[in-house]
Design the sequence.
């Protein structure tokens, strides 16, 4: 593990998407709210339960087996169709276009990640680690280990950017230092991160390629 003082000079960046690079809360709430209404569940609790977790894993925990494929497909359609409402956080475009190699590491599908990045006016980076490419989602270390491998960088020399406890746990389990943002969770849930900041723009200003 790198010392905290060194995390601002990473060889590569592994950035979460939702709540980190883009603000997709309202869009996600609409899709999961519709799901919750279909299933007779509490909308707020369902959305919170789903945050930071691959859709298939959430659906598997909440829906009978024979109905899972249809529900997952509907949620995916709803989220992709609503991707144009997503906005980029200040600093996201600069980070993606900057000199440090970057992978987006998200619990969403490749189609959703691409749609949300483009909907927010961002160019998708060459490396996208999505739910389509992994067997185990966050908080398992697999997503961040794959991201580091795709960028040919040892995990301790990467920097993860995250907003959710499951993502922080995933990165730390992979041996990747983490900077977390207070965009979607209270600070008390982000204490596993090396540093906690208010905004992505603060992190971009501190990074040294």
Sequence:
């Amino acid at each position: 593990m790198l010392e905290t003082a060194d995390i601002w000079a990473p060889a590569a960046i592994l950035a979460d998407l939702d709540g980190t690079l883009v603000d997709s809360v309202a869009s996600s709430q609409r899709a999961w709210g519709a799901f919750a209404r279909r299933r007779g569940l509490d909308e707020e609790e369902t959305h919170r339960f789903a945050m930071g977790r691959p859709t298939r894993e959430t659906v598997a925990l909440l829906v009978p087996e024979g109905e899972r494929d249809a529900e997952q497909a509907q949620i995916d359609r709803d989220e992709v169709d609503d991707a144009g409402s997503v906005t980029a956080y200040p600093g996201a475009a600069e980070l993606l276009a900057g000199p440090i190699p970057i992978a987006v590491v998200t619990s969403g599908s490749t189609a959703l990640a691409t749609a949300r990045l483009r909907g927010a006016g961002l160019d998708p980076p060459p490396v996208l680690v999505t739910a389509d490419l992994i067997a185990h989602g966050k908080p398992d270390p697999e997503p961040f280990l794959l991201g580091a491998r795709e960028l040919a960088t040892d995990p301790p020399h990467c920097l993860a950017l995250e907003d959710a406890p499951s993502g922080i746990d995933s990165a730390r389990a992979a041996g990747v230092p983490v900077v977390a943002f207070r965009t979607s969770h209270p600070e008390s849930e982000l204490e596993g991160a090396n540093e906690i900041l208010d905004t992505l723009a603060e992190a971009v200003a501190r990074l040294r390629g």
Summary: The two ends are 19 Å apart (CA to CA). Residues 60 and 68 are 7 Å apart (CA to CA). The beta strands are 12-15, 22-23, 87-88, 102-105, 127-129, 158-162, 178-181, 195-197. The mean pLDDT is 94.
